[in-house]
Design a protein that fits this description.
The chain has 2 domains: about 100 residues, Tetratricopeptide repeat domain (Serine Threonine Protein Phosphatase 5, Tetratricopeptide repeat); about 100 residues. It is about 80% helix and about 0% strand. Helix 3 packs parallel to helix 5, helix 5 packs antiparallel against helix 6 and helix 7 runs parallel beside helix 9. The longest helix has 22 residues. The protein starts with 7 loop residues before the first helix and ends with a helix.
């Protein structure tokens, strides 16, 4: 049974750690309770941050199961993030709200709306360069899948350079997540058009993930993608 004496922040942190360990059902229990506790504490930034984590958890469940219900739940949490941020004038949360809306649009293969959401996320973003690079490479993927392949690839590589340039600004775990994620998406996008380059990016993603024991989800994703390279 979850201890309800924990603060909203403690519950949220516990849920986020469980998600990173691929324990999504348990993560949802903590994150949902964190929302209730944050509401009692009247900490609206905490609510938005927890919705961000829960949205990502729904996203992972959708990618694992292909059950559209999880994508719908992710969408509703992303919409709630933006609505709460606007209501309480939490302008520092606009960027992460638009970013999650972009991720959800990608789940539904709505690439043009995803491009617009990612562009808004970058517009409002004012944090470390490395995270901005994460936002930018997601924008590049949306552009690529929307048919703008050359511009999309260039944007992804620009985002990768920002991540690498800002390597000392944030926790190494986040750098590993973002850098390996960019390589992984490049490998997926290029596997048909540029298979040799795609394999190179897949191996770079694998090297990063294998060196960081915390990248549980990323290692699974890499091996799943690797199967599609076997003919």
């Amino acid at each position: 049974m979850i201890r309800t004496k924990l603060s909203g922040h403690q519950l949220q942190s516990k849920g986020a750690r469980l998600r990173e360990n691929d324990k999504h059902t348990e993560a949802l229990r903590y994150l949902t309770l964190a929302l209730v506790v944050y509401q009692k504490e009247k900490k609206y930034r905490g609510i938005v941050d927890t919705l961000k984590d829960r949205c990502l958890t729904w996203k992972h469940l959708f990618l694992l199961t292909k059950d559209r219900v999880y994508a719908i739940l992710a969408q509703k949490d992303a919409e709630a993030m933006l609505e709460i941020s606007e209501k309480y004038e939490l302008e520092d949360k606009f960027h992460t709200s638009y970013f999650r809306l972009g991720e959800v649009a990608m789940l539904f293969e709505n690439y043009l709306p995803a491009v617009k959401y990612y562009q808004k996320a970058i517009k409002y973003y004012a944090g470390p360069l490395a995270e901005k690079g994460d936002y930018r490479y997601h924008l590049g993927e949306a552009l690529y899948r929307n048919g703008q392949k050359e511009k999309g690839k260039a944007t992804m590589l620009a985002g990768l350079r920002e991540i690498q340039k800002g390597v000392n600004e944030v926790n190494p775990f986040l750098i590993h997540v973002w850098e390996s994620g960019c390589y992984l998406r490049l490998a997926d996008l290029l596997k048909d058009d540029e298979p040799n380059e795609a394999r190179k990016y897949l191996e770079l993603a694998r090297e990063i993930a294998n060196k960081d024991p915390e990248l549980v989800i990323r290692r699974r994703q890499i091996e799943e993608l690797a199967k599609s390279f076997i003919k």
